[in-house]
Each structure stands twice: as structure tokens, then as C-alpha cells.
Amino acid sequence: MQILKGAKITKLRLGAMEGMKNVYLFIRPALNKPAISKLHKVSETTYGWNEVTLEEPFTVTGDEIFLAFNAELPAGLGLLFSKEQHANAGYVNDGQQWTDVSTLGIGAMYLQAEVEAGADIPQTDFAIEAVNLKKKFLQIGDTLEAEITISNYGIKPAPLPAICHTIEGGAPLKWEKDTLVEPGKTLKLNRQFLTDNMHEGYNKLNIWLDTDDRFKQNDSMLVQIPCYKTAYPRKTLIEHFTTLPCTNCPLGLKVLSKLTEGRKDYVWVAHHVGFEEDELTVKDSYYLLDPIGASGGVPAASFDRTVLPCSNSPKQPCIGIGYSATDLAVKKIQPGLDAAVHTPAFLSIDIENQYNEATRELITTVKGCRNKLLPLFYADNFLTVELVEEGVETKGCQVGSGAKVHSHVFRTALSKIKGDALQWNDDHFETTYRFTLPNQWNADKLRVVAFAHRSLDNAKTDIQVLNANDCWVTSAGTTGIKDASLATGNVTSREYYNLQGQRIARPAKGIYLEKVITANGSHTYKHVK
């Protein structure tokens, strides 16, 4: 706003649909501060521009201001946005929080001011709005890709100035793009930078415009580039929210099953919450709904509790997966899963299980190590350890599919559901949990899932899972790999028989037969317990 210092705002105008009621236009210094101009009312909007003249012209001081309005929107009536995206597109408050419109992939809000300025106002003022990195972390030796957003806040068209940069105080480099930028317009440029001379940790990338603008405060931007050399093997945590009464949940299951087909770089946990309850619901699962953003309903999922391009909102990790067109959903969501999987891990997770078949006591030890980058990039480290069962048969059927056998079922948390703070001994940790399995759980089909993560008490954008792993409770559990086919939802029931062909309630010690009944027929397997 420095370029307009001393100018006077005389009018405000809002582009709107017909029918918005009790509209008040005003100026405020910040999103969370009250108006610094009088409120001017439009009783009901007409289609197009709705303009008010300020009773007292507002003098621009050079400090940041926001043009603002409050209004009543009848049901079914929305706001108008331009087709052209802009870094300062505006903010919308739904009564709970502000959302930056520029992050939603839509254009700018139709909200303008008419300004009277003196003849000495500068003709041009270019500003670097943002520098967005294509990757959150960069491996040294790879090429750094960045998108640079530049705006012209002047009053006349002007050629884009040359752009300069340095990395870690090195020699300045200059590059140019021959283009004319109209006043009020924004330009986005993609640029690649070499990383060979970067070091592990944060590296300073300083970018500035080679211009003679009167106001230099907005001509440059310093960006910290997080770099690493090596990382630990990683698995991504898929948290799936589903319930038996949910009509669309079979659709979500199909989407996740297709997404994970042929992959081994994930750990899948299904929480039966989000729409009513069922016989697989565990109360602890409710603690996850709000932080992940799944309170709005199921089927839903998150990948590493990370905000991704496929998330429902840039403010929370939750991903809607209830698509009837499975292939279309996979095409949309797959890049998000790939991004999560390829995020480097700066700590390891290893699991060791000891199971006493006679007492049904499980002793689980989770241990790992970290490199020097973990405390630099993620100061808060928590560990959650869970038990997940495959092939769980229910009395009730899944609405929409009729399935009675379910995979990846969350049974309990061995740690706190929100995690235990990791206790580091130098760069190593080791934690042991003891638990006695209920008789109705099948030890051979139980997996221990362990994952390190940030605090669930953080903002929803900062609760990322840092690494995950899983391990079967018993050595016989490895034969349960075939149960991955259950993820299609085609299994309707299971029956168990002894070698004499007599049906039994549960597998007994020795050799027994398992008959898996699916929508396409039945399969019989021989097991030794």
C-alpha cells in the first residue's frame, strides 16, 4: 500500500448476485480487527456492481488494509469470483475460520475501491507475492523447482523487471522474461535452481527484482530450502474412516483398494466411526475425527495426516473417497498418495512381537533411530502403537455391498490414541507395551501398527505422520497376506471345518479348513494352528 500513501478511498463496490441482504461494506486493518471506516449499507444487492460512496473518504497511510463486507446469503446463493486467479484473491469466513481464497484454485473476489491520488503517485510498483516450492524437502543433487508469483501494483502497464537470486550468499544470478504486465495483474513464473552446493538443513534462497521502484519492501523474498542427503525407508499411514450403516462406504473401499493395488509402501488402518456406530466401532477412534477433519462424514481417509492437493481443504488432511467413478477418483487422489510416500523420513520404526499362545499375552517392542535433521524439521515427536485385525467377520452386513468380512479393522491402541511422547536416548528410542488379547480376536490375523507423528494438539496442518511400519503378531500371520483380497469387499462370510468335514465355531489347534465365501464363489484353505 506504500505506493498509494496519501491517496483517498472515496468509494467501495461489491460484485454480487441478486438477493444478498443487509450488506455492509467497510475497511479494516486486519482480518481479526474491527473496522477503521464507517459501515455503509446495501439493503439488498442487484446483479453486478453494488457501489457505496464513503461519507468520509479514507486516507491511505501505507499500512496494510482489507476491503471487507458482511452479508446475509439466502440458501443457494453464493459469492462471485473472477475467472483469473490472484495471490490476493481475498478471504472468506464461514463463521468459524478464515479461508484464503487464493488457495482454493478459484479467482479473486469482486471487491474494489475507487481511489483519488495526486499526480506524484508512482507509475509502477512490482512486488514478489510468493515463492512456492514444488517439493517440501529437497534431496541434494536434485533440481529445485519453484513457482514465483509477481504482481504489478502500479497504475500503468510495465515490462517485467529482471529477477535475481542468490543461494546461501553465493554469486548473484540474473534472468529475464520479456513480457508486459498490466496494472493489478499477477504473473506466475516457474524456475529451476541447482542444489549441488547446498548443505543438509535449511538453505537460504534470496530472490529480488532488479527495479528502481520507489518502494523496495516488497521487491524481495527470502525462502528457506530444507535439504537432505539420505533418508530412512518409509511407509505411509492410510487412515480409513468407514461404518457398516454407511451407504457410500463400499465406494470408498473400492477407491482405496484400487489406489493400493500392487503397492507395499503403506500401512492401512480402518476406523469405524463417522456415520453412526457399528459392532467394530472403538471409542478411541473419535479422537481422530476432528484433527484430521473427518467430522463431516464418511467415507473418508488421510495419508500420513498430511494436507495434500487431494485434501478436501488446504486447512486439514481429510480426503473424501466416496466416488462412484473409481478410476476418476484414483486419478485425482493418486498424486496425493505418491507425494506422501515420497516424503523423506528422518527416523526409522522397527517392531518386535512376542506372543504367548497359552496366556494370549502380547509383548510389543517398538524402536528406531533418527538422523540430525529430525529435531531440526520436526521438533515434536510422538509414537502411536495400534492393533489391527484382518478378516473380521461381523453379524451385520455392510450397507451397499452386503459384506460381512472386513479388513484393516482398528481394535485398540497399545499407546495413548493421541500418542506417547518419544523419549530419545541420544538418537535412539525403544518402548515396550504389554497387552492380553481378548479371546474373540484372532492372533494370527492381528498386526501391530506403529507410527511416529507430530502432536494432534497442533494446528490441523501440522500433525503429519513422520514414518510408519507394521508387523504380524504371530509368524502364522504372514499367511494372512492373501486376505488383502478382502479389501475388494466381495467376501461375505467365513466357515471353519475340521478334517472330518464337521463345521466348527473357531479354529482349534492342529489342522483345520477355512472356507471363504465371496460374491463370486467360495475358496477353501488349509491351515495349521
UniProtKB/TrEMBL annotation:
The name under which this protein is listed is Uncharacterized protein
InterPro entries linked to this entry: Ig-like_fold, Omp28
Pfam families xrefs: Omp28 (PF11551)
